Here is the input.
Amino acid sequence: MRARVVAIGKSTLIAVVPIVLALVVMGILLAALGRDPFTFYADMFQRGLFEWQGFQESIIRSAPLLLIAAGLIVAFRASLWNLGGDGQFLLGAALTAGLAPSLLDALGVWPMLLITMAIAMLVGGAWTIIPAVLRGRYGVNEIITTLMMSFIGIGVANVLVKGPFRTDVGGVARTDVVPFDERFPLLFGTRIHLGFVIGLIAILAVHVLMTRTSLGLRMRILGASPRAALHAGLNPLRLTVIAFVLSGALIGLSGSVEILGVQGSFRADFNPAYGLLVIPLVFLARLNAIGSLALVIVFSVIQIGGESAAREADVTSDVLLVLVGLMLLFMAVVEYLRVRRGLGMAFVPPEVADRLRPPGGEGGGGAQAGEPRPALGAEKAGSR
Amino acid sequence: MTSDPTSAGPLLELHGITKAFPGVLANDRVDLELRAGEVHALLGENGAGKSTLISILSGMYRPDAGEIRFQGREVEIDSPRAAIELGIGTVYQHLTLVPTLSVLENLMLGSHGGTGRLDLASANDRFAELARLLGVDFASGARAGALALGQQQQVEIMKALWRQGSRVLILDEPTSMLTPQGYEELRRELEHLKDGGLAVVLITHKLHEAIELGDRVTVLRAGRKVGSLAPDDLRGRSESELSARIVEMMFGEQAAELADAVEVEAAPAARESPRRELGAVALRVRDLALDADDGVVGLSGVGLEVRAGEIVGIAGVDGNGQRELAELIAGQRRPRRGEVLLFDEDVTRLGVREREARGLRYVTDDRLGEGTVGDLDVAMNAVLKRIGRAPFWRGGTERREEIDRFAEGLVDRFDVRTPSVQTRIATLSGGNVQKLLLAREFAGEPRAVVFNKPTHGLDVRTAEFVREQIREAAGAGLAALVISTEIEELVDLCDRIAVMSRGEVTGEVENSPGVEERIGALMVARAGAGVPAGSAS
Here is the structure.
């Protein structure tokens, strides 16, 4: 129990330190630009977190991100690098936006919501099948294939929006707008829509799936060691397809949620690139669903609050990208130091090593029954 | 190299070396003395502290306490570089050669020339010098991957001695991958090295090797030096007498009950395997063929039969298709041709799970990469092949208490040393992981089991425990196919022994006294393409 608390504390620290370091360095940059970093951060958190309006905006922004995070975790835990999130997201969004108006006319609000979400999930899932089979059966690198499928997906979404789904109303090509009243219902008199609840449920469900169920365990084993998976009698092809389709479906659903909750319509060349934005966040949370939930919300606050702080400080909102980039950089540095510390323990004097070691020891004190395995980290690094 | 190796004082002395890791005292005031022109055998079970001690010698670890003297002068070996500068070279258990490079290129990889220019002429001179010293004979231009394993090891030794002025050579379990002929070869090489004035440290957990190869023997147990034999002690005594003394050192008062286990080590042929009642043919493979691929040894025309209650061995140098055969039987691979029958049922098209459900099990030799998932705990690894099945999972959701209870049962029965079943399995020692694997495969109702190197790297006691489990299970009607690179073990355990070489079964012999030589001959029988490991000089 205590070990668990220590472990959770440790991983929280690992996630928080990069954020703090990034804020510090960004502050120095802002100061160099002649802006007061304290005002900037105060604005950022004020607008994104402490002001009721801004807070709601942040929560609304987090809804699709949560679904994408959920989808990415499923795939990444199985060591399947689904980098085609943007294509899956946009296809889900385009089909939802394109079909919603006519479904609304024919069937009413709730059937429209459910059917469009189901279609978005289907198309998002289907979009991963080719990479999944290529990977599962022939070992083709899915990083390439999912990216390619993503380009195709983005293209198809735009072809649909500029073609069959295009509204008669002139101007920029886009789909018919779903009236505000007939989108997702809002929660308890706030502006937060149902999509946030869907995102929350999805990420919690993924947490349970990955930590408590046999399917999740199988996917984790596939991710940890494909050879062990084969040895244990798992079906790598089937698991690969399941993990990929589930991942694509959740990301496709996020596209639907963005349309039904916020946009109401798909304008040609709409692409918020959420898929790529969320990838670093789930890694920062070490592919843990609960950690991702927290980070997605922090990230949303930074985005929403930051945009308005940037306006206020008269700097381009690109500084937010710098801030996020710095977080990733520091995340990589902290990760490196963490791994190195375990690995390089032998090269520091014993007293220092003892001080560096977390309380209770890396292996839980008596964990190394029998033969000492001090070089565990080194073994992993392939030095033997 | 010293001119007069024998009369000089110790070349390297370790005094009171102590090294602690969290929870384990790996070395506890260990003394060791290396002399030029001597082989010093370091003997001990797994976890006795041999590896830690040589890691200290080779600069990988720094001791917590104790001193190291080189030619009487106190030195600090605080990095691998410092060890190399003192002339201490190490040959690790696993080969580190780049197979696609030539022997010479491999040797030159280790030396960091100042200018980055490759000085081929002097490298060739050094190669010739070392080849003479070792008494080996192959071309410096040969591709490393094309050499027999024994020869690759010789290249490793050359690499360790590559730097001019090498004084100490550390060999970590050098015999683990050698044929009987390769072993003889190593023995000759050691004589050459001694004549050349080197001090050799030979790590082993096999008693007879320590006695045969060592001029001096130090026995470690649980991190402490528990005894040693000087050259005078070793000279003129029979092997069994020495074995008894060493066993006494290794196990103290428990020695008596271990007499059985040691017999395998000391006098392999002396034991007659008991006859068991044989039943129907449980496992039959016919004409199995597999295409060779990157890292996969091709098989052709492999046929075998194992009856219920029978233990059949597969001997052979590592990497001659044993693993591929095991994977074909387990269902982890599909053959190009041929079939696998389990109690006359054709299972060739079935997957791992279906075969497992029919009582076919496979104990892999790759415990950490394949048999277990290091990041999962002991309990999860215990049910790794039963994921999703009742009572461990219900409705797809895990029942942690059931899983833990089952795992605790296995841990108990096979005496797996682990703080708890919630411990990450990667923190367990190799022997304990192996015990868990065996426990897992023995659980339920196995009818035919393929054991791939079941005792590899285990200490004497655990290895004998494992063999006893296999014998017992066979007594109860299990069909056991045991793959091993150690002939003594197969002779001790099996009714029949088949020999594999280059992806074929080159022969099959009934187990009878004196069968080792025939097996040894079959092991290299068709290895015609390269020079057999045993005939290089």
Observations:
- The two ends of chain B are 24 Å apart (CA to CA).
